[in-house]
Amino acid sequence: MNQISSGVSSKSSRFFEMKRRGEKIAMLTAYDYPTARAEAAAGVDVILVGDSVGTNILGYKSEQEVTLADIAHHVRAVRRGAPETVILADLPYRTYDTPEQAVASARMLREAGADLVKFEGPRPAIAAALVAAGIGVCGHLGLEPQHHLEKRLKGRSAQEAKSLLANARALDAAGISMLVLELIPEEVAATVTRAIKAPTIGIGAGRLTDGQVLVICDMLGFTPANFRHNRRYHNVGPLLDAATADYVKEVREGRFPAEANLFHMPEEELSIFTGDAA
Ligand code: KIV
Predict the structure, then answer these.
(1) Which of 39, 63, 144, 182 is catalytic?
(2) Does residue 171 share a domain with residue 36?
(3) 163 and 265: one domain?
(4) pTM
(5) Is position 109 within any domain?
(6) How far is residue 29 from each of residues 47, 63, 83, 126, measured CA to CA in Å?
(7) How many angstroms is it from 174 CA to the middle of ligand 1?
(8) Is residue 186 annotated as part of the catalytic site, yes or no?
(9) pLDDT digits (tens, 9 = 90+) for 37-81
(10) Is the dihedral of CA 37, 38, 44, 47 positive or negative?
(11) Using CA atoms, how far apart are residues 198 and 25, in angstroms rounded to an integer?
(12) pLDDT (tens digit per residue) in 11-35
């Protein structure tokens, strides 16, 4: 069954075409309405509502705490901000233990507004079940944040690289529409990209994947630590700190609000009001 005849998603067939033409796919995470609006306006190809929402936005200690209800809530906000953009939603930890559970979980995210779902690990049977249910799937290999608590490079040894390639091929044969490759050497990502039909999207996987994804909080400089794989396109974190501190100071000093920020009653209404109040 191929991607188009299965009816999985005519939206994702566009990405196979981009791969064929050598056009890079730009994916970025978003978790809320204003960010989704900005990303849609910038022409982002795919918005990922990732389980990175847990540690970046919800204050959780790990991706494992993220629930299906969390992802559905954020998918709804992102869909309102980006009605036309392809939305990929993460299936959270332990929500795809069996093919039946994966399909039920994915349906919930589809109802919230996601076009495709992503799950981590070499689980071709899960991918096949989702595809058979008409749900577009993105695989995720290399570093799997839900399963690898130590965040380190994967696929460094020839043996690890070979098994990653075999896993990618198995997911591809199961009908995935995309494959995220996280934190692996460029050489391995390039080999996988050439070996499979589905477009590959790299994060810390070098330059030769079919597309790239970054976590918006890292890319904007909200995350205190910077990572080698990341590029900060702005450093918004310090701006947020400075603006908040200025506001607190001005409120305390009586400098906010100023004349420009307030409203007055018409004179005649004021005299009636103050006369009555006297
Ligand atoms: O949750 C997420 O943001 C992700 C990216 C790291 C690819 O899965």
Answers:
(1) 182
(2) yes
(3) no
(4) 0.94
(5) yes
(6) 5, 15, 15, 23
(7) 22
(8) no
(9) 999 999 999 999 999 999 999 999 999 999 999 999 999 999 999
(10) negative
(11) 12
(12) 788 999 999 999 999 999 999 999 9
